[in-house]
């Protein structure tokens, strides 16, 4: 600052000397002009302003020299003017700026937060805010100068796609606020980096490079991106990596994202997916059981499409398959222990060693032929003991069974359930043709619908019993090889049709009412079990009319079938039989009289006439 003051003193002295010389030289010329010139012209050309201000006339050449010296050494310090200044000194709080004025200006370092590398000798733009405050200090503003120039710079940066520096001021909804050239620009969260950002606060207070990607001239909004700067580099890296991809290649990557179905790994600009099934040889419920975000790990390339835009990676493939470490001593028939890891409709998967699983099919969970859900037997997490049923080391498959841990109930079936023996069982299932009854775990038998009742006509088993009911049964047939039992329920009771056969035998007569009129006849109900059918022509009474619903009459059984539970009755047979008896008796009497005496033709006619009169009288 001392050098500056000395410089100004020299310039001022030089300027004042030139002004003095110009005044001294000009005086004689002025006097001559006054004497020799016309007084009226002198008064017209006389500079009254200089005279009133006390300034003597100066030679024009000297004035031009003076003005040139001023222009070379001093700026025209007008208010609100943006000029270039040089940083001549830095303190802890301020920057001292030289703009070639009579004194230096002071600018707070807060206005240079976007430029933490500011140093002495840098040229900066400043606005002359106040030429001279109360202390004679020149007041400058770098922030205001940047604001004035900012919009032009932002537009130029956008049009020319140049890189700009910006200071991240604060976090806001969906992104960050960045100071660019003094303008508050918006940095979306998605434009901070190529990978998802979980903590925005780490960027606050940092100066970063950006690219202006969008400008709204109407609302003066500016959007910047840091991601756009690194995408170009990443694209080059991506092409280089993709060009070198090979199946089986092992690469290092960083866990970029974790989903329920797998893990996305950043291979250096190229993302690959490790499916959940390729994370571990053991079953897992979620990938976060194996990996975590930002974790570095090695992965192997399993496959990729022709464009190499979708890359399938594997993690478990870097380790030997657990089946390879499975002991050779394990064989079919051995007992193993394991934990239930997955339950499906068809069975349960048991992990017998880390990464080694066997399937217990639901049919191998119980000796019962009536299949149920696997969840009826085991739950996820249960420890179970099972028998190895099959093993394929090449296919790495194993089937297990737990019912084999208990004796086969069919081993001594003939002793426990001989034909003709009576038992009790639980109704487990219905079919259209019968009922499955469980006598014990693993022993099921079938009752055909025809063996449920002696008397009832059943269309579906649900009309007779319910699931879970206990029924008395008798073993009708036993097929040991086919593991089948044929059962009967009605056989546990006497067949009432044996009794009905004697009571309602062919030709027997019974009194009953017409119960219902049906197609081609009517039905009569003798009791709860015996319902007989009367054909239409057998409803005829003696007077030629037919019986109607509710009318009581005497009926004769004309058909009885115990096997098919069929009974047919007739009312007409009752009075027809009576007529037949009368004719028979008359014929018999005539025969007897003929034996006693030879009858004449008139006698025979008389007998027939008497029979006719008798029949007419009945009518």
From TrEMBL:
UniProtKB keywords: Repeat, Ribonucleoprotein, Ribosomal protein, RNA-binding
Region (Disordered): 1-33, 588-619
Entry GO MF terms: mRNA binding; structural constituent of ribosome
Compositionally biased region (Low complexity): 17-27
All residue ranges annotated as the S1 motif domain in the record: 80-143, 161-227, 248-316, 333-403, 420-490, 507-572
UniProt cross-references to PROSITE patterns, sorted A to Z: S1
Function of the molecule: Binds mRNA; thus facilitating recognition of the initiation point. It is needed to translate mRNA with a short Shine-Dalgarno (SD) purine-rich sequence.
Alphabetical list of NCBIfam families matching this protein: PRK06299.1-2, PRK06299.1-3
Similarity remark: Belongs to the bacterial ribosomal protein bS1 family.
Name of the molecule in the record: Small ribosomal subunit protein bS1
Origin species: Ulvibacter litoralis
